[in-house]
Please model this.
Amino acid sequence: MLPYGRQSISEDDISAVVEILRGDWLTTGPAVAALESEISRLSGGHRAVTATSGTAALHMAYAAAGIGPGDEVVATPMTFIATTAAASMLGARVRFADVEEDTGLIDPSAVAAQLSDRTKVIAAVDYAGHPADYDALQSLADSVGALTLDDAAHSIGGSYRGRPVGDLADMTTFSFFPTKNLTTGEGGAFVAKDPVLAQRAHEFHYIGLVRDPDRFRITTEGPWHQEVHEFGLNYRLPDIASALGLSQLQRLEAFKRRRAEITARYNAALSDVDGVRIPTQRDDVDPVWHLYPLRVEGGRRREVFDKMRAAGIGVQVNYMPVYWHPVYTEQGYKRGMCPNAESFYAEELSLPIFPGLSDAQVDDVIDTLLTAMR
Model:
């Protein structure tokens, strides 16, 4: 089965990990700091804090923002549930805003309709690797004193209006899962423009430990002393994973180019095919295509999915609207809330896309799709 996504591991990646295993630091060492420095460089110079997963990074973001009971988070439903799960677990009410009909990205006009004096965060997702409209979203957030959050699990290395992902929102989170644009095995990162938010996220991911003597509330102990002011969790990414991430970052531009080539090949072959719609790209965005989200019209998505899987092409569907999950329906969320998102989901089919995919394999995917559409 040809997968829809997979990691790209080189001999240099393997050597980088082996070097750590032969050294003194398996975790909390120099490779972690080096990876955070490189992510910061890619993200406009803002402080980066690594994490054990993209989900952990999202939890860090909501915790850093002080989300709690009585607060509201406006979020897109066209995403994996991790985007909103931590906010819900912290006690916030999630208000889902519909997406643009063509891109599947959160629609600023729909966000505006969901804002209230309880809104603390507007959470966007750079679906498929295409950044959302952050100028509009930031203006809306500023109007109610909220923060913007870019769930950039799909989009590291991309840009919007000349600015890199990581510099688009108040807070940004990345995922380094194997199918993403680069991997640390499992892993993620948090980036914040405000150093106070970044420090809060750092302490939260480090079990809440405070190590700054100027902030100690207990001043009678020795140089070993550290203390906890707010509860945190151990979301630290180890040096082993960080070394893999550092090695992968050296090929991020090559990964981006290959994903663009595959996308262009699909677009050229499928743009005039009846019954399908190719992905939309805005003129002011330079995406990193994590997914190739084809739209299969006429109610045929399941039929085409089954035929392609039977032919050995591992297509996928991304994503069921978040509020359809039982954990949300049991809280009273209803189908029909976000019609564009539901229509998008009903048609979406992710074709294989990853750097190791050959042109011949891309052509095989295309031929199999055309046969399935007949």
In short: The chain has two domains: 11-249, 252-373. Residues 252-373 form a domain with the Aspartate Aminotransferase, domain 1 fold (CATH 3.90.1150.10).
